[in-house]
Amino acid sequence: MSAIGGVVIEDGDLEDHLEAFLAALEHPNTERIGIHTGTNHQHASTREQLELEGLEARWAIVHVAGPAPEPGDQPVQDAGRRLVATIEDSAAASTLLAGEEDPEPPTDRLARRLADALADHEEIGSALQDLSGELDHVSALAAATADGVAIMRDAQGAVPLYAGRQASFAAFATSKRPLWALDMATQRIKPDTLVLLQPSRSQTIHLPRRAPNPVPDDEDRRTQAHADAFTAAVRRRVEGLDRVGFMATHPATAAAMACALAETPTDQVAAYVPDRANRKLNEAVDRSVAPHADEVHHVALEPWALEDRLRDLMGALEARNQGLVADAIPPYLLSRAAALDDISVLLADRGPTEPHAHEALEVSEDRSTEGSHELPLGAEGPLERARKLARDAGVTLRAPRADPDVVAFESPEPERSRTDRLTALARHLGADPVEAPPVVETENRDLQELLADAAETLDLPDIPDAYDAAASLGQGAQGAAAPGRAVVAMDDPQHVDLRLQWALDHLGLDAGALSPEEHQRLDRYLEDVQLPAPAGT
After folding, report:
1. Rounded Cα–Cα distance for residues 418 and 397 (Å)
2. Chain segment 165-217, per-residue pLDDT in tens
3. Can you tell me the distance from the alpha carbon of 57 to that of 38, in angstroms, rounded to the nearest whole number?
4. Model confidence at 243, in pLDDT bands (50, 70, 90)?
5. 3-class SS at 174?
C-alpha cells in the first residue's frame, strides 16, 4: 500500500512544514503529495514567501475558495494548473525559503533535500482543484487523484483529509464537528484505519454518572441523552473494525470515547491517555477509561517528549494495525510518521499546538470515583459561531429567555431575501415559521452545520427527532410568535403542509416529479418522524 502524503503550509514555521513535506517525499512508498495553503490570501502570502512559481513542483496544491484575495494577489483557482520549474541552486532557493540573505540558513539543507526528493519522483500527481467549499466534491476529487488524497479546509479552519479509493488510512482534523468527520470518513471512503484528529474542544461532552440518581432530574436526562447519541454514533462509525484504539489528551474525551467504544461489538479497545504531572488527573482518567478498555497506555505530551510519544503511538499502530481516534495531536507527529517503514500515513498539520483552556480539569471529590467529567464550552462555542454566520446572512440567532431550549431567529430588516434565509435556517432546526414565505434552500452549508451544533449545544434533539421534542413545548412556544420571528411549533396541525415540504427539502425531492421509489422513500420518512401526510401525497 502506497503512502500518500498531504501537507498544510501556513504562514510562518516554514522549516517545520518543509520537514513534514520532505518526510513524506522520502518515504520509499510515497507516490502523491498534496499541499494545501488555505484561503486565497493565505495562498498568495505563502506563495510569495516560498516563491512557489520558481520551484519544481510535481506535487499539487489543493485549494478551497476562501475570502476574496487582497488587491494585487494572484488568483489560484485555475484548475489543473501545474507549478513546474527547477531548483537549480539550493543556496538561492534557501534564500527564497528563508527570506533572508544568510548564506547558510537552516533551510539550505531542506532545499537540497527537496530538490533531491523531487528528482526521484516522476509520478507525483497534480490535482489542483477549486472545491468552492463543497463537501460533495470530495468524491470527484478522490476519483481525479485515483489513489491519491484530497485536502480541504472548511470555513472554521478544520483541515479534513480525504483518502482516495485505494487508500487504507484516512485522517480528519476537525475541531468543530467530530461526529460529522466520523460520518464523512466511514460513509464516503470506508477506510480500513480511521483517525480523527482533535475532537471538539468547543462542544460539551457529557458523561453519565456511574451511580445515577434514584429520581433522574432534567440535567441527568439531558446528559444521558447526549451520551446515548454519542455512543450510537460511535457504534455506527466503527462497525466492522475488530480492533480500535484511540488517543485523547483530555480526560473527558478519553472517558467519553472509552464508554462509547465499550458499547460497540469491537473485539479489542486500546486507550492512549496523557501522562501528566498532575497525579489526580491521571488517576481520574484511569478510573474513567480502564473499566471500558482492554489496554490503557500513558503517553507523554510534553514538547520535549514528542519523539517518545511518536514511538508509543506508531509502535502501537504497527503492532496491532488498529484504528485510532486521536485528540489534539501535536503538529509534527503524523508528519514524521511517514518516515517510518511499512506504515501508510496521510499527513496532517493543524498549525501550532494551542494549550488546552480546560487543561486544569477539576475532579469533584464526591464523584471522583464515578468517572463523571465535563469538558466545558470554549469562549466561542458552536452557538457563538452560528450567531456570527447568521448575522452575515442577515439573520439574528438567539435563545429566548423564556425557554432556552427554543431557538428563535429574528430578521433585522423585513426584506424578502432575509426572510427566505430565515425560513431556511428555521427549517434546518426543525422549526416551522409562523409566517411562512416561499420555501427556499440555503446554500450556506457551513451555517447549516453550525446551526446543528448550536441546536446540540442547546440540548435540542437532532432532526428529525426535533418534531417529537418540539411537540412537548406546546402552545407556549406558539404564543411567543410574532412577525419576523420563527419558533418551534411542530404540534400545530396547520403546519403539516410545511412539515411535508421540509421533509421533501430534507430528502432532496421534488413534490411535482416523484418516482414510485421516491414516494416510498418519502412515506417511510414521514412514518419515521410520525407526521401525517396531507391528502394527495
Report:
1. 13
2. 222 222 332 223 333 333 333 333 333 333 332 232 222 233 333 334 445 55
3. 18
4. low
5. coil
Beta strand spans in 52-168 (E): 60-61, 149-151, 159-163
What is the CB neighbour count within 10 angstroms for residue 141? 20
- The amino acid at residue 187 is Q
Going across the sheet that includes 159-163, the strands are: 149-151, 159-163, 169-173, 193-197
Q: Are 490 and 499 in contact (CB under 8 A)?
A: yes
CA–CA separation, 293 and 148 (whole Å): 34
**CATH number assigned to the domain covering 199-326:** 3.40.50.1100
Q: Are 253 and 196 in contact (CB under 8 A)?
A: no
Sheet with 408-410, strands from edge to edge, namely 396-398, 408-410, 485-486
Q: Domain boundaries in the chain?
A: 1-177+329-354, 199-326, 382-528
C-alpha distances out from residue 483 to 112, 436, 460, 479, 494, Å: 67, 10, 23, 12, 17
Cell numbers given for 16: 517545520
Q: Are residues 324 and 195 in contact, defined by beta-carbon separation less than 8 angstroms?
A: yes
For residue 466, give the nearest of 481, 446, 479, 451 by alpha carbon. 451
The reported pTM is: 0.26
Distance between CA atoms of 376 and 390, rounded to whole angstroms? 24
Give the single-character DSSP code of 280. Answer: H
